[in-house]
Specification:
The structure holds two protein chains of two kinds. In chain A, a hairpin with a 4-residue loop joins β1 and β2. Chain A is an alpha/beta fold. Chain A is globular and about 55 Å long. Chain A starts with 14 loop residues before the first strand and ends in a 5-residue tail after the last strand. Chain A has two domains: 93 residues, Elongation Factor Tu (Ef-tu), domain 3 (Beta Barrel), CATH 2.40.30.10; 135 residues, Nucleotide-binding domain of ferredoxin-NADP reductase (FNR) module (Rossmann fold, 3-Layer(aba) Sandwich). Chain A is built from six helices and eleven strands. By secondary structure, chain B is mainly β. Chain B has a single domain, classed as Oxidoreductase, molybdopterin-binding domain (Sulfite Oxidase, Chain A, domain 2). Chain B is 11% helix and 28% strand. Chain B has four helices and eleven strands, in the order βββαββαββαββββα. In chain B, the strands form two sheets. In chain B, strands 1, 4, 5, 8, 9 and 10 form a six-stranded mixed β-sheet that branches. A five-stranded mixed β-sheet of chain B has the order 3-2-11-6-7. Chain B is globular. The relative contact order of chain B is 0.19. Chains A and B meet through β3, β4, α1, β6 and α6 of A and α4 of B.
Chain lengths: 254, 209
């Protein structure tokens, strides 16, 4: 694997961000739009650390992917609530506009994409794994038309049920085949009358959705570990180069 | 931190305080799962072409095939591990060869020691370690986990195990150690992560204390 940009980054300080808006994306997922003082900017695909400190001094930290593109002045995090979690129920259920939230970042310099890197771009997501890929899609959408036209994008997004699809309306709005195709697959329940995929991502689905290896797409895969392991392995079996497959695996973080 | 942390309005501990809390470094939480984190696809190296090499600054090296490596004296450490992404897992069980054993065997073949090492892996991953952090019974090259062969997604056939540092230092798919005269940042260390990564000092990122 190649290292994109070396060099000593600045020290990451904790900053108290201000929640400027919250937006429910699904019954379980909420976007928090943050104003972060002296935010140094980020690249699409990076994440931040969030720290919560209780009155009694108890602390909890988690990492969350950034959903907003580098072009935004704000930092948007989309958090999925885990009922037995400690941080996500607070972020999804308690936090409201005007509240402060400690963050530091941006973090992660490998699972990143910039339109100048080029394409084609293959984005494969499972569940809330769509979040860092959304930053890439939004970044792509903000590029000049001529730049965008040179970088076709295909999104393959696996969700359990229709109500688990994060950013559904925006994905529908961004879709503009053949330049930008969005393909959904449902692993549990599909919507009534659904004629698309209704199973876990498999080799046939990847082969149908992706470009052939000869097109050398940049593939970014994010989601739960079993999905990422399976998709990354299948991409290699289909003939894609390991150096063209970027992965971010996460279990749900409470 | 130099200043008072910001109190999150209405945030309270939800997890019960356990007797094991002292095993958690700052900012970590305990998980019973074994999450997987890697930057790219999982490499799969056949054992017939696997080897492990220790090289000194002058290029002298000691090399083991898989079978030769298996014949080395083994340890079965049980350790707590701490990932920089915040999860910690207690009491993980491993089987492998102590780095002390490997370095002693390499020295007997004329490989000269040095103050720093760079671990290199299938897939191109590297990570840097000081000699002090991998000697004195603190580091292993392990090929067994929980009584079975180490699965590829967890770093098999063999990975480094340096449990007193954040787990990115326990490089998966490790194939060799190279002595260095001076410290040289590895893969994540060049991408903003801390050069040493002591979880008890919360050395997550570049510039942390």
């Amino acid at each position: 694997m190649a290292i994109p940009e070396a060099g000593a980054p600045p020290r990451l300080e904790w900053r108290v961000a201000r929640v400027v808006a919250v937006r429910d994306e699904t019954p379980r997922a909420r976007t928090l739009v943050l104003e972060v003082p002296q935010w140094p900017g980020h690249r699409a695909g990076q994440h931040v650390d969030v720290r919560l400190v209780a009155e009694d001094g108890y602390q909890a930290q988690r990492s969350y992917s950034i959903a907003s593109p580098p072009e935004d002045g704000t930092v948007a995090l989309t958090v999925e609530r885990l009922d037995d979690g400690e941080v996500s129920p607070y972020l999804v259920g308690e936090l409201r506009p005007g509240d402060g939230l400690e963050v530091r970042g941006p973090i992660g310099g490998y699972f990143v994409w910039h339109v100048a890197v080029g394409g084609p771009l293959l984005l494969v997501a499972g569940g809330s794994g769509i979040v860092p890929l959304m930053a890439m899609l939004r970044h792509h959408a903000l590029a000049d038309t001529s730049v965008r036209a040179a970088v076709p994008v295909r999104v393959l997004y696996s969700a359990r049920t229709p109500e688990d699809v994060i950013y559904q309306a925006e994905l529908e709005r961004l879709a503009a085949p053949p330049l930008l195709e969005v393909v959904l697959t449902f692993t549990r329940a599909a919507p009534p009358g659904w004629t698309g995929y209704h199973r876990r991502i498999d080799r046939a689905m990847l082969e149908a959705v992706s470009w052939p290896p000869s097109a050398a797409p940049h593939a970014f895969v994010c989601g739960p570990t079993p999905l990422v392991e399976s998709v990354a392995t299948l991409l290699l079996e289909l003939g894609h180069a390991a150096s063209r497959v970027w992965t971010e695996r996460f279990g749900p973080t409470g | 931190m130099a200043h008072e942390p910001f109190i999150a309005r209405g945030f309270r501990r939800r997890s019960p305080e356990t007797a094991e809390a002292h095993r958690l470094p700052p900012g970590q939480y305990e998980t019973k799962d074994f999450p997987v984190l890697s930057a790219g696809p999982t490499p799969r190296t056949p054992l017939s072409s696997w080897d492990f090499t220790i090289r000194d600054v002058d290029g002298r090296s000691a090399r083991w095939s898989w079978d030769a490596f298996q014949a080395l004296p083994r340890d079965t450490p049980t350790v707590d591990i701490h990932c920089v992404t915040k999860w910690s897992k207690f009491g993980t069980k491993w089987e492998g060869v102590s780095v002390d054993t490997l370095l002693a065997a390499a020295a007997s073949e004329g490989v000269a020691s040095g103050p720093f090492l760079l671990a290199s892996c299938d897939g191109g991953y590297t990570t840097n370690l000081s000699l002090a952090d991998v000697t004195g019974g603190k580091a292993w090259v392990v090929f067994g986990h929980d009584g079975a062969a180490l699965p590829p997604e967890h770093g098999g056939p063999a990975r480094l195990l340096v449990p007193h540092l954040y787990f990115w230092k326990s490089a998966k798919w490790v194939r060799g150690l190279e002595f260095l005269r001076s410290d040289r940042p590895g893969f994540w260390e060049q991408l903003g992560y801390h050069g040493r990564g002591d979880p008890w000092r919360e050395q997550r990122y570049h510039g942390d204390p």
